[in-house]
Amino acid sequence: MVAPEQPKVILADDILAIRQTMARSLVRAGWKVALAAHGGEVITLARAEAPDLFILDWCMGPKVSGIDALKVLKVEPAT
């Protein structure tokens, strides 16, 4: 019997401690977690990973925000 694949989540926050804390909880809950520090990383990871869920910080410093990343991903059929 083949084990079911772990669900995938992309977790984005510009604060490292928040990413690490949330990632530990998600891994314990059975998620495969990909971490991003800004929206640009989210977009790149989403194209490569095909996640089941996004957890995005809305405001991530001077780089691409979670809102802007979501707008890009929303119009891309593959994501």
Short synopsis of the structure:
The protein is α/β, with parallel strands linked by helices.
Description:
- The chain has 79 residues and is an alpha/beta fold.
- It is 43% helix and 18% strand.
- The protein has a three-stranded parallel β-sheet with strand order 2-1-3, with helices on both faces.
- Strand 1, helix 1 (16-28) and strand 2 form a beta-alpha-beta unit.
- Helix 2 (39-49) runs parallel beside helix 3.
- The longest helix is centred in the N-terminal third of the chain and has 13 residues, at 16-28.
- The model has no long low-confidence stretch (mean pLDDT 91).
Please give the number of β-strands. 3
Order of helices and strands: EHEHEH
**Rounded Rg:** 13 Å
- Specify the biggest β-sheet: 3 strands, parallel
Instruction: Please state the structural category.
Output: alpha/beta
Mean pLDDT: 91
Count of DSSP-assigned helices: 3
Report the portion of residues in β strands: 15-25%
Percentage of residues assigned to helices: 40-55%
Q: Strand order within the widest sheet?
A: 2-1-3
Supply the key terms.
79 residues; alpha/beta; 3-stranded parallel beta sheet; 3 helices
Topology:
Layout: E1 8-12, H1 16-28, E2 32-36, H2 39-49, E3 53-56, H3 66-75
Parallel strand pairs: 1-2, 1-3
Helix pairs in contact: 2-3
